[in-house]
Amino acid sequence: MTLRTGPLAQLGQKCLLWLSECWDRDRARAPLWAPVFVGTGIGLYFGLPTEPPWWYAAVTGPALMLWLWSLRADGVIVSSLVGLMFWASLGFGACIVRQTWVPAHPLMRAIDNAQVKGRVAEVQPLSGGAVRAVIDVTSINEQPAQLRVRILIRTKPNDMDPGDWISIRAALRHPSGPVAPHAHDFGRALWFRGITAVGYALSTAKRIEAQRALSFSEELQTIVGQVRKDLSVRIRAQLSEEYGPLATAFLTGERSAIDEELLEVYRDSSLAHMLSISGLHMVMAGFGFFAALRLAFAMIPSIVQRFPVKKAAAAGALAVSFVYMLIAGASPPTQRSFIMIAMVFLAMMLDRPALALRQVALAALVILLVLPESLIDVSFQMSFAAVAALVAAYEWWQARPKEYVLSEWQDKAWAWATSSAATSVIAGLATMPFAVFYFQRVSNYGVVANVLAVPVVGIVVMPAGMLALILMPFGLDALPLRVMEFGLHWITEIGRMVASWPGAANVVPAMPLTSLVLTVAGGLWLCIWSAQWRLLGLLPIACGIVVALLERPPEVLIAEGAKVFAVRDASGRLTLSTVRRGRFQAESWLRIDGDERTLREAQDQNTMRCDDLKCSAQLSGGDLLIVSYAADANGSCIAADILISARTLQKACAPDALVFGPKLLEKEGAITLWRTTSGWQWTSVAQTRGHRPWVPLNTGAEAPQAALAP
After folding, report:
1. Cα angle 354, 358, 362; round to 5
2. Any idea of the CA torsion for 433, 434, 436, 439, to the nearest 10 degrees?
3. Nearest alpha carbon to residue 88 among 66, 59, 68, 52
4. Which contacts (CB < 8 Å, 24+ apart) does range 685-692 have?
């Protein structure tokens, strides 16, 4: 007697057999998922509304033992799930440990006029005759204090050096929060750098005597900072006003002095990644020196025959890459790039394959465990997305059967051109979700610009720049810098040409976080596996695109303190209340909305009517929104369905009215509203940020107010 099975059961059996075959082929690649699961634990940590207890980090130990026990049972599903829990708990615990080690001391309250004394840790020149200085404060108004602040100072860059002890009057405040719920958190990014206050100078800086002895790390930071500044000053002094800041961006990582119009050209042409020292620069610097050393050794046959010159060249290139990282400021993106290239050179020294996904995974794992906040940094996400996609594509191409061998120079030239174009396409597709999520900008001709510009960087700009750094102590850097300027000129002209083409760059609405997570998950599935089931990664990518298309934007946006607000008109575009206050918030809202209009163009008196005391707008569902700045807003309270009052109300409004008073506005930060079938719903920055170490103590989530909000 034979059992008959239906077509669905047969299909299910075939699918299970296919999955089993794919797993057998890709079993050895399973460890590549370790940094992904570590990142999952880190993401869970940053998604919590409150700080978890420190002892949560101890979960890693039992999870490890459970994982090792599950491996003995040889159960694929059990061991995989327990392994996921172990790596995720390891990432979660790394966040807790990192949070306790961050030297961030909070500013208790904003100070309008503070006499600040401290040591200058960083000096960042800005265009327009100003600097942004990071100061390790020792006292405020003659009272001992221990915090790090960032102050905008109107002074020449040459008048202030890293390591200087200064006294200056300044206005200090907490770093600004996100411009909208779920938007980029500037305060969190600064907090992990130890900066808990920002402000601007009210006087000139005066040098004072040292207030305390410096630690070894502070002495080293001072020396490196001074060297970087001297290099930047010398480079800009020998080159033109346009290309000097570009050269310093390539060699010392200092890009703040670049003209805004030039930055826009590089963004629209998809060349802006060249201005941030990361993988491209580190690879060209490290491998350029590696190739030069191997060439020098090859000229001495006796050395080649007696010593492993490839390993010696790799060791020398590793040392040069480390020095270059220090000169470039050792920013988190530069550190990540150094770790990745260090893995490659170490693999050469140990006779291991130098270019493989396991090196990428190991570098990501080290970075995430040491600096877990890197996961939510756009440079980390984009750099690893591009590298992982390129290495996966390289491995796939190498595994294909070779149908022919290139012989003629025409064939080799064509292969080089097509591989350059393919590299740009792959890197562009891998980083596109992040460009949409963070910058709301897509460059349509980036492949053309990069195919033309990257060879100029590799052949002219970086070799000349590295030679200039080597010859600078001897005063022989003028000629290489001129050659570098020539290369920068051609790169800029390529950028201007591509940026001038019709439709060179499109502004698009920001994609939601859910869409980004789905897209990244699908991309990782495509990159990590090598069997046919890798194509299943297209499903979450498609789901992410659908989620982005179905995203419903908010109908009302209110800035912190109601400095400015916006409503969505019948056409679906935002209308702003004012352009005199909250310009940064308003510009950010338009960019997030994928709107290219200027602030003036986004004002419409037909949609929103404003005078000196209040603004009113008729919303799409017929409800009346009123924002009142008057001392007595009770009249507006009677008429409005939604009232935003900058002054305290003396009487309660109608029971079904939604009212936001001054205390609530101050506590909740920026607010967004949208209509549902059950009425108006709202969320705030305070609700999404929660109570975390980087959130100022006077803010936090508060329950929604359906009637009177004091």
Report:
1. 105
2. -170
3. 59
4. 685/177, 685/178, 685/180, 685/181, 685/183, 685/560, 687/181, 688/178, 688/181, 688/182, 689/177, 689/178, 689/185, 690/48, 690/49, 690/50, 691/49, 691/50, 691/51, 692/48, 692/50, 692/51, 692/188
Question: Angle at the Cα of 660 (from 176 to 703), degrees rounded to 5?
Answer: 80
452 and 369 in one domain? yes
Averaged confidence pLDDT in the chain? 84
How far is the first Cα of the chain from the last one, in angstroms, to the nearest whole number? 79
Q: Tens digits of per-residue pLDDT, 215-245?
A: 888 888 888 888 888 888 899 889 988 899 9
Question: Is residue 581 one of the residues assigned to a domain?
Answer: yes
Give the pLDDT band (50/70/90) at residue 421: confident
Q: Are residues 250 and 357 in the same domain?
A: yes
In contact, 68 and 86? CB cutoff 8 Å: no
The residue type found at 193 is R
| 186: enclosing H helix or E strand | helix 186-191
Examine the domain organization and report whether 383 and 296 are in the same domain: yes
Final residue belonging to a domain, choices 446, 473, 507: 507
Name, in order, each residue with C-beta under 8 angstroms of 538's C-beta and a sequence gap of 6 or more: 522, 526
Percentage helix, strand, coil, to 5, in the chain? Answer: 55, 15, 30
Reported as a pLDDT band with limits 50, 70 and 90, residue 104 is confident
The verdict on 646 and 522 lying in the same domain is: no
Task: Taking the CA atoms of 424, 425, 430 and 433 in sequence, report the sign of the dihedral they define.
Answer: positive
Q: Is 313 part of a structural domain of the chain?
A: yes
Is 581 in the same domain as 636? yes
At position 685, the amino acid (one-letter code) is: V
Q: Is residue 499 part of a domain?
A: yes
Closest among 472, 476, 478, 422 to 450, alpha carbons compared: 422
Do 544 and 500 belong together in one domain? no
- Distance CA(547)–CA(513), nearest Å, equals 10
Residues 499-547 have pLDDT tens digits of: 999 988 888 999 999 999 999 999 999 999 998 999 999 999 999 999 9
Q: Are residues 417 and 485 in the same domain?
A: yes
Which of 58, 77, 101 terminates a domain? The answer is 101
Q: How many domains does the chain have?
A: 5
| Residue indicated by tokens 């102590």 | 473
Interatomic CA distance for residues 577 and 588, integer angstroms: 15
Tens digits of per-residue pLDDT, 37-46?
A: 999 999 999 9
Q: If we measure between CA atoms, which residue out of 192, 188, 198, 186 comes closest to residue 137?
A: 198
* 510 and 523 Cβ atoms separated by less than 8 Å: no
45 domain-assigned:
yes
**Domain range spanning residue 202?**
111-213
pLDDT digits (tens, 9 = 90+) for 27-62: 889 899 999 999 999 999 999 999 888 777 777 667
Q: Are residues 76 and 142 in the same domain?
A: no
Distance CA 64, CA 69 (A): 9
Q: Is residue 165 helix, strand or coil?
A: strand
